[in-house]
Amino acid sequence: MKVVVCIKQVPDTKGGVKFNPDGTLDRAAMMTIMNPDDKAGLEAALRLKDQYGAEVTVLTMGLPKAEDVLREALAMGADKGILVTDRVLGGADTWATSQTLAGALRNIDYDLIITGRQAIDGDTAQVGPQISEHLGIPVISYAQNLKIEGDSVIVERQYDDRYHVLKAKMPCLITALSELNEPRYMTPGGIFDAFKAEITVWGRADLKDVDDSNLGLKGSPTQIAKASDKVRKGAGEKVTPNDPAEAVDYIVGKLKEKHII
Amino acid sequence: MSLEEYKGVYVFAQQVDNVLNGISFELIGKGKDLAKDLNTEVTAILIGSNIKNLADELGEYGADKVIVVDDPELKEYRTEPYAHALASVIEKYKPEVLLVGATAIGRDLGPRVSARIHTGLTADCTQLEIGDFPINPIPGKETKHNQLLMTRPAFGGNTIATIACPDFRPQMATVRPGVMQKLPKEAGRKAQVEEFNPGFTPNDKYVEILEVVKAVSDTVDIMDAKILVSGGRGVGSPENFKILDELAEAIGGTVSCSRAVVDAGWKPKELQVGQTGKTVRPNVYFAIGISGAIQHLAGMEESDLIIAINKDDTAPIFDVADYGIVGDLNKIVPELTKKLKEELANK
Description:
The complex is a heterodimer of chains A (261) and B (347).
Chain A: E1 2-6, E2 9-11, E3 32-34, H1 36-52, E4 55-61, H2 67-76, E5 80-84, H3 94-105, E6 112-116, H4 127-135, E7 139-149, E8 152-158, E9 162-169, E10 172-176, H5 188-196, E11 200-202, E12 223-229, E13 237-239, H6 244-257
Helix pairs in contact in A: 2-5, 3-4
Chain B: E1 9-13, E2 15-16, E3 19-20, H1 22-38, E4 42-48, H2 55-60, E5 65-70, H3 79-93, E6 97-101, H4 106-117, E7 121-125, E8 127-133, E9 144-154, E10 159-164, E11 171-175, E12 192-195, E13 208-214, E14 227-231, H5 242-251, E15 254-257, H6 259-263, E16 284-288, H7 294-300, E17 305-310, E18 323-326, H8 329-345
Parallel strand pairs in B: 1-4, 1-6, 4-5, 5-12, 6-11, 7-11, 14-15, 14-16, 16-17, 17-18
Antiparallel strand pairs in B: 2-3, 8-9, 9-10
Helix pairs in contact in B: 3-4, 5-8
């Protein structure tokens, strides 16, 4: 079986978020990582490789430096990396991004496509379901468990107060939660091989059955009217009481002042 | 497409097991604001099986019209039949604005539908208004009036962006639960009800539901709590959450927690506040032993009053707290509970 995992290189917000003195985000100080939900999706695919000998291809769209995230995936055990990069694809919203990835996927043989639920920079969770719609295949989002049975996948799909055990015929697309599994580490041998491995690079011309009017900034139905780094409301008072009684008096005083009690 | 053909504010009225989700009423409430500015009406789209009886409740919360798509295929939520139902309603009725809750269902349904009908979708909005695009006139570029301006946080709540969808209809947004206000219920208020069934023909995209497993939970929804007593890794152990339970009981609050606590298995996921948990904005939020990772702040910083107790005086939680107390929670919290009991007993 053939599995394609869509992954994204994102700035690392976990633990490493830095602010400028004015309260805005200091992007230059942040590292890039493989998006966590995507990494869980990759791990799920690699387990299918371990179990069933699945062939795992990783696909990303981004700047040329997004190649790094493909090499990381190869070092974890993926078989093949494809980078879609082209100036005309830049500035894409989720519609145009999903059109781009669908255009690339039409050139790849797949039984199963796995994407992360959402990327930590955009948090939209839209690209996976939109890709599935463009390709006309079923989608199961928020997968928290996954197994293969014949020509179908069986997935636990999480909701607020329940989960469904769903069966979908392949080809289909699932979106993975980072809770799905604990991704493996890269192996030293894998890192060595990944550095030498050839990454396939595709541009606009390599996308199949996609109109120019659906790509990049021009093909994006949504447009940014205004964007700003959020300035937090700022700290209020901070006190360091000498003993618990003083702390308690302080809190109770404030609760009374605000008519909470 | 001719944009002028598209009229009216529509909301997806989410129901599960014949019970409307609170987000449905919140969307109607916000929809009424938008409809006023656009001089139009609010229509709720109710999708399910044997759910016609819910239309009255939507009317009482302000819907002017309800379109009911009722079919046995729609008994449990599945992406394809629901997407077919919603997309068919859009094709027939041509709404100008369509709001969907940013719930586990809405964030699956919304993208599938927006891709099917070729329009933009803005995820997880926290603010919606009608205005001009571009917001400030740009020489040589047409200013379009009466556009839906959709504001959303990104980057774990670190940035905010306002998005428009000027050339496609409907303008679609998923809206974060707990942010918009529902209107007071007006008993006896009626909506005009219309039934519509586009026909459902199962195909490979209709996935099969093998089993529905409901989580049994008797906990209060933390999104409804007026006072939250929230604990983080600093609480130290699941047993030690007892001192938070006691504080919550004394002040009439509910216990919630950070992601670290859920990851450690101390508390269930439904009590988690933050970007991957729930967004809350209670009257009072006690952050106890919570350092305040950015993802946590994104879920609680709109609380009216934030009181933080943490022994680390550099903890980022103090950057958003109205009142920060640097100290040992193990000593302060039990004392606070005792004092509050005395204060409230004297009233």
